[in-house]
Design a protein that fits this description.
Layout (H helix, E strand, L loop, with lengths): L2 H19 L4 E5 L18 H5 L6 H7 L1 H9 L6 H9 L4 H11 L3 E6 L5 H5 L4 E3 L6 E4 L5 E3 L19 E3 L10 H13 L2 E5 L10 H8 L3 E5 L12 E3 L3 H15 L3
Parallel strand pairs: 1-2, 1-7, 2-3, 7-8, 8-9
Antiparallel strand pairs: 4-5, 4-6
The structure holds 2'-O-acetyl adenosine-5-diphosphoribose.
2'-O-acetyl adenosine-5-diphosphoribose binds next to loops.
């Protein structure tokens, strides 16, 4: 980073820490940029998955419902289009940004972490108060009763696999295009966003709804939005502070400073 850019980032972190440290109900919202330093590509922009493969069809969920067995066969196929992503996800480890958010939660400062990421890295880092609004790729979910199960514990001899509880069809917990966000997780997100007076938004283009709406709602109610992203986004104009740096670098410094300012 050039010296003046580094100075701007440090000044941004200090302002962001001052604002976040006085929050009563701090919430974080994260997106794909959060895991770039863990080796997982984002969706949009240079090197993005959708940039490389094109955006998946908007009717992904309808296609799943039309032939769940075929959808599972495609998913499990060694040549499947998502295979490369799955292998990347399996190999990935949390980066210092994930650990910083887990530390803020264990210090009792961060109340909820809403993530759009399905990569499980926040959980691996130790975060517990998580709402995975687009699901978790390690889990499967029953489309009838919404119960979730560890994906590697579900027998896949007969496709589609069935829910051990109600015999409904199981699909990966990752939310497909055209699929409603499961109501349990959506409710947790709305609760957190409603109580939130300061939202740290890291690594998202803020283009996919409803997640993208939360920071705008917080701002409209007079709360603060702290953005962490190397580039400007739709959110930048309304953010209280935008820190233009990578999440894996900015979040550890921000978390440390918030904890210091809170006298912990
Ligand atoms: P995007 O790929 O749309 O945006 C990633 C954001 O991360 C961009 O704004 C980048 O500038 C930023 N970024 C890149 N590198 C970064 C870094 N090192 N640190 C911090 N930020 C960085 O990803 P999302 O906003 O998460 O949904 O996309 C939202 C949803 O769109 C995804 O959850 C997915 C996708 O369709 C589903 O699959 C349902």
């Amino acid at each position: 980073m050039a010296e003046d850019a580094a100075t701007r980032v440090s000044a941004g972190i200090e302002r962001a820490a001052t604002i976040s440290a006085r929050a009563q109900y701090l919430v974080a919202l994260t997106g794909a940029g959060m895991s770039v330093e863990s080796g997982i590509p984002p969706f949009r922009g240079p090197g993005g998955l959708w940039t490389k493969y094109g955006e998946p069809p908007m009717n992904g969920y309808q296609r799943f419902l039309a032939d769940p067995a075929q959808a599972w066969r495609e998913r499990l196929s060694p040549q499947g289009p998502m295979r490369e992503l799955w292998e990347t996800l399996h190999a990935a480890q949390p980066n210092p940004g994930h650990h910083a958010l887990a530390r803020l939660e264990s210090a009792g400062i961060l109340r909820c972490l809403i993530t759009q990421n399905v990569d499980n890295l926040h959980r691996l880092a130790g975060s517990q108060a998580i709402a995975e609004i687009h699901g978790n790729y390690m889990l499967v979910r029953c489309i009838e009763c919404s119960r979730r199960f560890a994906g590697d514990e579900i027998p896949l001899e007969a496709l589609p696999p069935r829910c051990p509880h109600c015999q409904g069809i199981l699909k990966n917990d990752s939310v497909f295009f055209g699929e409603p966000i499961p109501t349990d997780v959506l409710g947790r997100c709305f609760d957190a966003a409603e109580q939130c007076d300061c939202m740290i938004v890291a690594g998202t283009s803020a283009t996919v709804y409803p997640a993208a709406q939360f920071p705008f709602d917080v701002r409209q109610r007079g709360g603060d939005v702290i953005e962490i992203n190397p580039y400007a986004t739709e959110l930048t104009p309304i953010a209280s502070v935008s820190v233009h740096g990578p999440a894996a670098v900015v979040l550890p410094e921000l978390a440390m400073r918030i904890i210091q300012l809170r006298g912990m």
